[in-house]
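Lecture notes, unit on protein representations.

Consider one protein chain, 319 amino acids long.
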Amino acid sequence: MGYFMCRPCYSELSRAFPVAMFGGSMWLFLWKGNEYIYIITDRYVSWFKTPIKRMLIGLGLMVLYSSTAVTVLALFFFVLVFKQELNENFFSEIKESVFFSVIVSTIIMLFFTARGFLLAWRQAAINVEKIKREHISSQYEALKNQVNPHFLFNSLNALSSLVYENPGKAVEFINRLSDVYRYVLDSRDKEVVSIEEELSFVNAYSFLLKTRFEDNITININIDHISGYVPPMAVQMLLENVVKHNEISDAHPMHIHISDRDKYLYVKNSLKLKEQPTEISGIGLENIKNRYSVLTDLSIEIESSEKEFIVGIPVLQIK
C-alpha cells in the first residue's frame, strides 16, 4: 500500500527503508495492539453477561488506542526521521492518518468480534453438552450411593433392630428413608435446588446415619439464614464421602459440622482415615467440582489437616 500510494517515497533506498519501517510499525501496532486490547477486555467484560457493554468498551478502547498509536508513530517518523516541519499541512495529514487507521482498526475489531462470537457460541454448545453429561453422572452417583446393596443392607439391618426395640423410631426411620428416596427421584431432572430443599434432604439422610452409627456420629447444622442454590445432593455426597473414607466407632467417633460463611456452605469433619481405604474412584468430589465448573466461575474449597477435613461449596445466586 505504501508503495502504490507514494512511489516517490521508495525512489531512494535511504528513504525507502524508514518508509517501509513506518508502514510495518503501523501494521504491527494496529493489529497486535488491538488484539491485546481485545484479549484484556474479554478477560474482564463477558460477552455472555453484558454483550452490548462489551462491544462498546471494546470499540471505545480500540478508537482511543489506534488514534494515540498512529499519532505517536507519525510524530516519531515524520518529525525525528524525516525531519518534517510541524505545520498546518502536517497536522492535516495526521488527522487523515488517524481517520483511516480507525477504519482499519474497526475492520480488525470486527474480525476479532466475529471470532469471539464464534468461539463463545462453540464454548456454549460444549458447556451444554458437558452439563448434560455431568448431570447424568451426578444422578448415577447419587442413586448408586443410595441404592447400592451396602447402603440398603445397612438401612434395613438398622430397621430390623428398631422394629423390636423401638417401634416408634422404626416408623420414623421408614418415613425418613422414604423422604431420601423421594428427593433422589424428584431432583434427578434438576440442575440446582434451593438451600432449603437440600438441607431438608440432608436432615433426613443424617437421621439414617445417626440411627446406623448411634452415638458414634454427630452432625450439627448451623446455617445462618443463607439463601441460594446448590447442585442437588452435593451436600449428601460430601457426607457419604466422610462415611466411606473414615473409621467411625466408639474409639473414634465422627463429628460433622455444616455451616455457612461468605456465600459458601462448609462441611467439616474430624479425620480418622480407614487403615484399609475403600476402593472408591473419587467420583463424588470430582463430580461436584465439574458441575460447579460449568455453572459458575467460583470453585469449591478444600482444606485438610491431620485432624480435620473441610470442603466448601459455593451457594449460587440465580436471577
